[in-house]
Amino acid sequence: xxxxxxxxxxxxxxxxxxxxxxxxxxxxxxxxxxxxxxxxxxxxxxxxxxxxxxxxxxxxxxxxxxxxxxxxxxxxxxxxxxxxxxxxxxxxxxxxxxxxxxxxxxxxxxxxxxxxxxxxxxxxxxxxxxxxxxxxxxxxxxxxxxxxxxxxxxxxxxxxxxxxxxxxxxxxxxxxxxxxxxxxxxxxxxxxxxxxxxxxxxxxxxxxxxxxxxxxxxxxxxxxxxxxxxxxxxxxxxxxxxxxxxxxxxxxxxxxxxxxxxxxxxxxxxxxxxxxxxxxxxxxxxxxxxxxxxxxxxxxxxxxxxxxxxxxxxxxxxxxxxxxxxxxxxxxxxxxxxxxxxxxxxxxxxxxxxxxxxxxxxxxxxxxxxxxxxxxxxxxxxxxxxxxxxxxxxxxxxxxxxxxxxxxxxxxxxxxxxxxxxxxxxxxxxxxxxxxxxxxxxxxxxxxxxxxxxxxxxxxxxxxxxxxxxxxxxxxxxxxxxxxxxxxxxxxxxxxxxxxxxxxxxxxxxxxxxxxxxxxxxxxxxxxxxxxxxxxxxxxxxxxxxxxxxxxxxxxxxxxxxxxxxxxxxxxxxxxxxxxxxxxxxxxxxxxxxxxxxxxxxxxxxxxxxxxxxxxxxxxxx
Length: 622
Ligand code: F6R
Description:
The protein is α/β, with parallel strands linked by helices. It has three domains: about 5-250, 4-Layer Sandwich (Glutamine Phosphoribosylpyrophosphate, subunit 1, domain 1), CATH 3.60.20.10; about 260-450, Glucose-6-phosphate isomerase like protein, domain 1 (Rossmann fold), CATH 3.40.50.10490; about 460-610, Rossmann fold. The chain has 19 helices and 28 strands. The radius of gyration is 26 Å and the shape is globular. The model has no long low-confidence stretch (mean pLDDT about 95). The chain binds fructose -6-phosphate.
């Protein structure tokens, strides 16, 4: 989704803004723009559609936009086409056809999020003589700020808080006012925004990597709060306009973690970081051989008391939820429902104090998952966020938080965060089972010690990558691919299929193997690739039979199974073996070949692996 950056300080702003936007590219965008001002002079806006280098070229890498204070934006279109006129920054007055040029207006701003009542606000502003040049909700917000600023002759902070009271929806806003040179004003509700502090400078951005090169001191601005940035100073205000104090956080992870580090793509780097992501997550949750959830605030008493667990998540995180369902039910004997966050709120699920609602989210900002969390809280359930990004909205609003330790994930298609989430839910399931007495201490210890072998087993799978690379060349022109499995193997299929389709653009479906013949099998043609998951001993024969049903209709078969199941080679065309582990944890090793297969297929097809079309890393719109 959109990315915003801001800088005020002693250096030239435009190159810093362009660099910051580059580091936010992973969020997905279709146009970009900057507004920079030089001391008291009017700000100048430059916009470009398409990739960021167009904007860099247009501004001679920022050199043709002099000034020490500025804001920048990458736009992922929601209201209005991806065009120059709709690209941000937007101004409170009128603007030229291209949207670029000197800003005569009093207010200029950028915005990430969606203003739900922008239509009604636009009507009001039209009645007051405002004219609109774009189709965006952002132009409406900028003009509304301008309206209050002038009507009540109040300062920027009060004009912004008045606007915040009127708008519904989500926003991270950065604004500059003509009368306040050297200052940037920011506001946030439900869209990510961080503020960076440095000597003689201040920054803002949608995400930490954008400013990490310049500072490690970060404020996580809260919902419905306003920030006022000037060189070397950051002040915060609540909705009443009263000054408040926020804690300063030191970012401990390395800027390296957000760089490619010699890999061709972030996705490949992140696939290789999975042993570390899983190990770090497990180490944070296992103390002296025992799963310890103290930091989440969940006690054994809580885990015993819950009669039901509901899981809400989107995309790959929802696939983790599917896996968690099988593992929690099997180990802890507790009923588990898994719901897509975007559907959760439309069901009148009976929730209450004895229900634990788990929201799984890498970014912690996914709008539908945040909405599901709020619905769960409203209905009286206890909530746990399993989140990767520290200080994100879900982390802040959930009753309990379990942080995964994947570090920053840049590629749009998740890999290491998914693996870290799996590790987290295994640990949760094992502790829940111990607390509820459905596993003995001895079984708990055995499960934990098996869990700790996962990083090394994942590393061993990575050593097999050349075979997957070779096989990817055989399937790069496939029209359709089907991933099938039963039980936990169905959960792997869901993720394997999503990885393949989202980055290779090959149509792919995941199917519960037993369900195929109730309709979908009619899509199997000569040479259609069917990938069968065979990691669960009790389901092996049945899934293999379903694969054979496809083969007899012309399918080309790939089987993925645990080391030792060599008989599979008699039936399928290509086999991938992964190290054996406890069957509850097999997804963690089995997903890696599927990630690699998707990755190499995308590379073979010459696609933008890290930034697939139409997708955004953090989906902050519903
Ligand atoms: C797919 C992918 C997405 C995310 C989904 C949820 O590779 O990354 O499906 O899993 O958008 O995002 P988070 O986990 O940030 O809530």
